[in-house]
Amino acid sequence: RIVGEVMDRPLRPADSNLPDMLMAVVCDGMGGMEHGEFASRTVCDELVEWAASTAQRTTEGMKPSFLDALKNAEKTIRETKARSGTTMTAVLAADGCWISANIGDSRCYRVSGDEIWRTRDDSPVEDMFRRGEITEDEMNTSAISNLLDLYVGGGDSLRTTFSDLGDEWDRLALCSDGAFGYMPVIDFRELVRNADTPDMITQTAYARGSTDNITVLTVDAL
User: Fold this and answer.
1) pTM
2) Which of 85, 108, 187, 197 is nearest to 140 (CA)?
3) In sequence order, which residues have a C-beta less than 8 Å from that of residue 211 and are 6 or more positions away?
4) Helix ranges restricted to H, the chain
5) Are 46 and 86 in contact, with CB atoms under 8 Å apart?
6) Which of 49, 90, 93, 201 makes an SS bond possible with 25, Cβ 3.0 to 4.6 Å?
7) Tens digits of per-residue pLDDT, 74-110?
8) What CA–CA distance (Å, rounded) separates 126 from 144?
9) 138 contacts: CB under 8 Å, gap ≥ 6
10) 88: closest CA among 56, 43, 45?
C-alpha cells in the first residue's frame, strides 16, 4: 500500500485489480530552501499531471512520455530558477509490471525476504563504491558525499535510469538521502525491512542524527 496516499489496502505486485496505472514519486530539491522547494514541487506536479493524462498503460509504453514530462519540468526549472534542481525516484506500475525510475541520490529500495536491492546513485561516491575504492558506509561520510553527477534541472532528465523491479518483493521504499545518510548501511536496511510505517523510518533517522529534510514513502505487498 502507498501509506498516506490514495490506496486504502495492501497491494499484490501482480494484482489484476490494480488501477490502470500506479505512480509513487519522491523528489529532494537542491539549491537552497526556496529553489529546492520550487524544483521538487515542479517535478512532482508535472509527473502527477502526466500520470492523470497519459494514454499509455504499459510500463514500456510509459517510459518515453514519462521522460517528456521530466523534460518539461526541467525546462520550467531552468527558465524560472536556474540555480535549482532536484533528485527524483519513482515507482511505476502498469499491466502487472513494476519499474523504478531514478536520477540523483534519492533511492528506491526493494525488499525481498532477506535480500535488499537499491537503485544506483548518480554521484561520484557511488562510482567510488562500485569500483571498490570506498565502502558503502564511507559513501555517507565522504567529504564529497553531497555531490551529484545527474539531477533534474541540470539538463540530465533524459539520463534517468529505469530498472525492472519484478513482482516478487515484500516492500518498496522510496526515500531522500536524509533517511539513509546518517546511519550504518546494515542498520538502515533492517529499518527498511522491519519498520511498521514510513514515519518510523523518518523518526529513527532523525534520532540517529539526521539534520536533513526527509521524505519516505513505502509500497507494501500482501
Assistant:
1) 0.89
2) 187
3) 178, 182
4) 33-53, 59-80, 124-130, 136-141, 177-180, 185-194, 198-207
5) no
6) 90
7) 999 999 998 899 999 999 988 878 999 999 999 999 9
8) 11
9) 125, 129
10) 43
